[in-house]
Amino acid sequence: MAFCRSSSRIVLSLVVLGLVCPARAEEADEVALLKDITVAANADGVTIRIDLSHPREATSHELKSPHRVWFDFPDTQVRSGTISRPVNHKLIKAVRAGQFSAEPPIARVVLDLSGDHSLKLARADEGRVLFIGLGKGGGRPEEKPARRPTVSVAGGEWAEEGDESARFVLRLSDMAPVRAFYLDDPERVVLDIEQACIAGPAADPSLRNGLACDVRMTQFESDVVRLVIELRSPAGFALRKLLNPARLELRLARGETRNRLVVIDPGHGGKDAGAKGYKAGLLEKDVVLDIGRRAAELLRGKGVRVVMTRDDDTFIPLSERPGMANNLGAHLFVSIHCNAMPEGKKGTRSGTEVYYHTPISSSFAEVMLKEFTDCTETTARGTLSRRFVVVREALMPSVLVETGYIDHPDEGAKLADPSFRQRCALGVVHGVMRYLERGDLKSVAALD
Predict the structure, then answer these.
(1) Equal CATH topology for 151-253 and 261-437
(2) Which of 149, 251, 353, 410 is spaced 20 to 30 A from 4 at the CA atom?
(3) Does domain 7-135 have CATH number 2.60.40.3500?
(4) Band of the pLDDT at 345, cuts 50, 70, 90?
C-alpha cells in the first residue's frame, strides 16, 4: 500500500503548529495512554480532541480511495483497546483508534474523511491534548470528567522465587480491569490496573530470584495504577485473576518451547457447516478439522502439548472454544477457518488472512501469516484486528487463520487436496513454533 505524496504536507503542518512537542525525559521512558477521543460538530465543521497521558511525537500519513488520514503515536497504548467515534458529517465519516503495534507499542488514530479536506492542528496541556479541525471547526469538545478510583491496590509480594521461574501476587480490594504488556530495552513486564489507587507498597525490595531486578508501582493516572517489573533477561509471563480475595497473579519464566500448551480450534462443526466450497460436498467444517488434526499431530511430535476444541464433527458454541483455552491455562490459541465471498461475488478472491483482537496478539498474527504463506504459497492478504468471539475472549495470544477461499475454483481445489492441507498444517505449526522460539510469550490479553 503506497502513501500519496501529500503525506509529507501533513507532517510539516504538525511541526509548524506545535502538535509535535518533545516529551520530558522522565516521560519519554514511560508508555503513554491514549485515554479518549471526543468530537464536536456543527454545520460549519468538526473538531476532534485526542487526550494523552503524556505528550508524544505523532507521524501522519494520507491515503486516497477512500480518503483517510492516520496519526501514529509511538510508545503509546490505547487505554480501552479500541475507540470508535461515528461522526457522519459532510467532511468526515468517523474517527477510530486502535493498537497498531504491541511491540513496540504504537497507537494509531484514523480519520475516515469524505474527501480531500485540509486539517487544522493545535495542542494544549503541554501536548497532552491534541485538536484536529476540519472546515471552520465544530466548537471545542469537552473533556470527559476523570473517573474516580473504585479499587485499592494493597501491595504485592513474591510468592515463589527461583532462577528459572517466579510468581508475583498483587493484592486488590476488588477485581479491576487490567492491561498487561511487555517492553524491552530494558526488558520489563507492565501491568496497568484501571479504576485503581495505591494503598500499599509494591513489594519487598529484597529480590531473591534470578528473573527480576526491580519492582516499582506508581499512580500513573488518577485512576490507573502501573506496576513495572524489570527483568534481568527476556522472560515469558502469564497473568491470572484470582477471587476471594481479589488478587492478580503474575508468573514469570524463562522462555522455552517444549511443554507449552496450544489449543487448536477447528472452526464450525456439526450443524454448523461453515462456508461451502466451489463444488458440492466441500465444506469448511471438514477441511479445517483435517488441517487441525494434522497440525496437532505435528506439534505433539515437537514436544508441544495440544488440546483440540473438537476432534470430530461436533458443534461447539463459540464462547466455549476460548473458554476451554482459558480454563486450561493455554499459552496460545489458534482457530482454523476457510474464507468465502458473499453471493454474487463467489470465486472472485483468494489468499490468506489472519485475524486477532488484542494488541498482544498482533505479533503472533504477523508471524503466523508469514510462516503460513511461506508454506502454502498463498497470497498474504494481511493481519486484521476484529472482535470475533474466539480471539476476543481468549486470555492468551490468539489468532484466527483464514487459510484460503474455499469458494475460489483454484484455491478451493487445493483445500480439497490432502497434500495441500498438510502444507496448511505445516504453516500453522511453523507459525506456532517460530512464535514460541522467539520468546514472544511475553504478553497477555487485556482482562476486563
Answers:
(1) no
(2) 353
(3) yes
(4) very high
The cell for 348 is: 472472485
Listed range (45-49, 83-87, 335-339, 429-433) with the worst mean pLDDT: 83-87
Report CA Rg, the chain: 23
The helix/strand count (H/E) of the chain reads as: 8, 25
130, β-bridge pairs: 50, 123
Closest CA relative to residue 230, chosen from 205, 247, 194: 205
User: Phi, psi at residue 23, to the nearest 5°?
Assistant: -80, 150
Which cell is 100 given? 497498531
pLDDT of residue 354: 98
- What is the torsion angle, in degrees rounded to the nearest 10, for the CA atoms of residue 347, residue 392, residue 398 and residue 396? -170
The pairing of strands 45-52 and 59-63 is: unpaired
316 and 263 Cβ atoms separated by less than 8 Å:
no
Q: Which residues pair with 383 in a beta bridge?
A: 354
Handedness of CA 108, 109, 112, 113 (dihedral sign): negative
Q: What are the sequence ranges of the domains in the chain?
A: 7-135, 151-253, 261-437
Q: Across 204-257, where does the E strand assignment appear? A: 212-221, 224-231, 236-242, 247-253
The string of pLDDT tens digits covering residues 242-296 is: 888 999 988 887 755 556 889 999 999 999 999 999 988 999 999 999 999 999 9
Question: Which helix (H) or strand (E) element contains residue 158?
Answer: strand 151-161
358 and 446 in contact (C-beta within 8 Å)?
A: yes
Cβ–Cβ < 8 Å for 131, 205: no
CB atoms within 10 A of CB 271: 9
Distant-in-sequence, close-in-space partners of 6: CB < 8 Å, separation ≥ 6: 62
User: Which helix (H) or strand (E) segment is 142 a member of?
Assistant: none
Structural class in CATH, domain 151-253: mainly beta
197 CB-contact burial (10 Å; exposed 0-12 / middle 13-18 / buried 19+): middle
Class of domain 261-437: alpha beta
Confidence tier at 408 by pLDDT (50, 70, 90): very high
Cis ω on the peptide bond leading into residue 186 (within 30° of 0)?
A: yes
